[in-house]
Amino acid sequence: MQSDARIEELAETFEMLGDWEERYRYLIELGRKLPPLPDEAHNEQNKVRGCMSQVWLDSRTEPGPPLKLQFLGDSDAHIVKGLIALLFAIVSDRTPREILDTDVGAVFTRLGLENHITMNRRNGFYSMVERIKQLATAAA
Question: Which candidate in 27, 51, 90, 132 is catalytic?
């Protein structure tokens, strides 16, 4: 797994929080801090399939060199919105190649989320990861 300051910071925060009730509260708080997704981006093209909740993901490019991607997203579920924010903390402001090279699943496991969210949410999370990889591939 790659070492990255953002990932290290997330891992340290999760370890410091201790119990899962606190970690869920932290996820919900991360979700509340997400910048709002513009109304026009709540569309079928940005909708993530495979999620139990409603989820929309969009990207913007930051001109380079090197070109980097910024992500925007929203969900109708608080925990899922927190997972979106967590995912964005890992992949936003990176080049498409860096995004494609990031093992998000390993980060997810390292944070202990693999064993502490429902299978449906886990499947939805990986659907979001796939959508981000598609956006990165399209931008590459």
Answer: 51
Query: What's the whole-number mean pLDDT along residues 82-105?
Result: 94
Q: 84, 116, 86, 97: which is closest to 11 by C-alpha? A: 86
pLDDT in tens, 56-85: 999 999 887 899 999 999 999 999 999 999
The question of whether 51 is a catalytic residue gets the answer yes
Domains and CATH numbers, the chain: 5-139 (3.90.1010.10)
Which residues, 6 or more positions from 34, have their beta carbon under 8 angstroms from its beta carbon? 73, 74, 81, 84, 85, 88
Task: Give the whole-angstrom CA distance, residue 30 versus residue 64.
Answer: 28
Residue 29 sits at φ, ψ, to 5 deg, of -65, -40
What is the value of pTM for the model shown? 0.91
Question: What is residue 62's three-state secondary structure?
Answer: strand
Q: Residue 78: name the closest of 32, 37, 23 by CA.
A: 32
